[in-house]
Design a protein that fits this description.
Methyltransferase domain-containing protein, 7-stranded mixed beta sheet, two-stranded antiparallel sheet, alpha/beta, SAM-dependent_MTases_sf, Rossmann fold
Amino acid sequence: MPSDASEQESYVFRQRDETESSRLNFQHTIALKVSQGHLIHPSIDISSLKAVADIGTGTGIWLEDLQQQVHSQTRLDGFDISAAQFPSASKCTYQVHNILEPFAPEYHGLYDLVHIRNMVESGGYLQWEDFDFERIVTTGAASPTHAELISLTCSFFTGLGMSLNCSIRVEETMKQAGLADAIREQRNSYWDKSLDSDTKNWCWQSFGGFIPKAVLWSGKAKDEETAERMINEKLQVLGKEYQSGAVPNFAQRVIVGRKA
Ligand SMILES: C[S@@+](CC[C@H](N)C(=O)[O-])C[C@H]1O[C@@H](n2cnc3c(N)ncnc32)[C@H](O)[C@@H]1O
């Protein structure tokens, strides 16, 4: 297992603190609305699930919500490289595990739904959700600050070796790996105007969470203090542009495949 320092380094957001946990939980509420209330893709029969793994579970918010909908005997396991955001009390189980490391044999073939990663039994499903970062654009009034911050975000993530739209690759990989009936859906928040204030808050909070690191990475700020000051100024302008009618899109993608 990595040290705390390397865990933190691997996380693009500033700290695994209460603010970040709230941001993740808030992000989850928007994702749920954007998916029209479906925690699990409607092609999967929720009542049949016996064991579910959530990989990179964070605060466990997805698993905790799922726990309300599944049979009381359903096993619900969350895994993350860090335990810092795990819930303090839960009916689900949470374990520290780096998904780049192999899982112990007792987990192989155990799950009939893996949310994100590949430990699926025959007939089981893999559901992967992520953002299409380049499509997190605004409509309504123009927001040059949003465009600038998304551009910096994309450069930062690409510089770290992260994909900006991994859903395309995931779908291809699922098909190559023989997962049947792979579905890739493009979801967004445009269909519901009542989400406008949520998506503005989400973008504003998310930029606040990782842009200071991105600014440091880009060399535009010489130290953390300068980066914080620069981003606070940017966030003020961003807030005004959002107030003037610019609305960001929650550009989420979901990919579902079934192991033959
Ligand atoms: C953006 S958060 C998403 C949390 C949660 N899935 C959600 O949607 O609310 C990404 C999570 O992946 C975890 N993570 C990143 N790299 C990981 C790895 N190699 N192994 C396990 N978890 C990892 C992070 O610690 C973090 O909690």
